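W.,

You were right to be curious about this one. When I first looked at the sequence I had no strong expectations either way, so I just let the prediction run and decided to look at it fresh. Below is the sequence, 129 residues in total, followed by the output.
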Amino acid sequence: MISIAAMMFAAFLFVFANNVMAQKKPGPWETPAKYKTMKGKGDLATGKELWAKHCKSCHGAKGLGDGPKAAGLKTFSGDFSGKTFQALTDGEIFYKTSFGRDEMPAYDKKIADEADRWALVAYMRTMKK
């Protein structure tokens, strides 16, 4: 006999999986040329702290796109551990973090210090599989 808890868990998984599958893949996101070659240095401890405060809720603790708010998004928030994301230049990641688009907010004002945004870039690099 299946317990009520097991049935509730199965229902949760079904709803979560359907919601994630209903999300569309993000379209191409072009980065202006001047950002593509930019490089910066970032403090990992600061990046980790900023990630927990600003990014984890959508992107998840390990950057897999599985944060608690992710299922409510129209577009998948991305897997930062994979080859596609990790192939981006540091400048491309900095640009996307700074200026956002669609459901991804811009952080150029929320995290006004460029060094802090570079710290996020450095921290995102640690998510590589």
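Here's what jumped out at me. Helices lie at 4-22, 33-36, 44-59, 83-86, 90-99, 114-125. And, maybe more interesting for your project: DSSP finds six helices and no strands in the chain.

Coffee later to discuss?

I.
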